[in-house]
Model the fold of this input.
Amino acid sequence: MAQTKDFYQVLGVSSTATQDEIKKQYRKLAKKYHPDTNANDAKAAERFKEISEAYQTVGDAEKRKQYDQMRQLGAFGGGFGGGPRAGAARPGTTGGYQGGSINIEDLDLGGLGGLGDLFGSMFGGAGRGRSRGPERGQDVETTLEVPFRTAALGGSVPVSLEVTEQCPTCNGSGGAPGAKFTTCPECNGRGTVSFGQGGFAVQRPCPNCLGKGQVPSQRCPTCNGAGEVRTRKTVEIKVPAGADTGTRVRLRGQGGRGANGGPPGDLVITFTVQDDRFFRREGLDLVAPVKINIAQATLGSRVSVRTLDGKKVAIRIPPGTSSGKRFRVRGQGIGREGTQGDLIVEAEVVVPEALTPEQEQAMKDFADAGGLKY
Done:
């Protein structure tokens, strides 16, 4: 009997995990199985798809709440788990659930509202065999590594995405050119079949006709009857100035294809910012370590430090500067939404590994003058 995978198991987290824990685990898995790092690996692509689907639900607090309600009812093979008993009557009816089936798109739980959109996507578009109007496509989530300077200053990064589009050969019908369509014998044209346990049944798309209610005499050779194909496209992602790890952008209409002529979903990008070889980031401030020698630290000096945009600023190092001392240059940090951070120059005193005889004697004389004997 077919079952939908438990989204918590897909992500490898406990059902009691916090939203932050779920997000952290999703990023870890998404990076591991991302198509860009697993070229031509069908299993990795499928795993990435499962991970993204699971995160779209349990990664959203409101959707997760609704999902957990269904999970308690045993809709995912886990029994009733404290939910209503199998024979309990639906509000406003005299009959019970026992032995019957429930169309997940019509279900309403204790005032939670219709869950058709959410659970329709979980079960692959349950009920598509019924006459329905246009439906918006699913949002697609992915992660994108961004260079440090691009994230700080703003810019764009190209990303290659795998998307679902209508099959160009059959125009979404699933049939080969010239094929005839007949009523699906598996679902008798309903487009859905029931599955469940313990008297609780849920409608899901018929695996034979893929929810269409009809089957072609010959399947489309391009999509094998699915009516849609997976293709790759390159999208230029605009990175806003001041973006940081965890920053999300939404591209309207770049997500999953809509059903029955509906609009496509959105593409949601979560940024992961790469480290820079020179700068560190503290909020909107930039920390720039600058190496100085003992003489500079003792006697004072002036050093030149480059800023994020490539310009240089002169910093005065006062006498007696110790390693780790910081000097702030106002307004030379990261800018975001009208707020500008600072550049923080951090002194790093470097001790020479070797001295010439003359340098060594000079250091001894210096130490003697300070009352130190070697």
The longest strand covers residues 155-166. Confidence is low (pLDDT under 50) at residues 77-131. The radius of gyration is 31 Å.
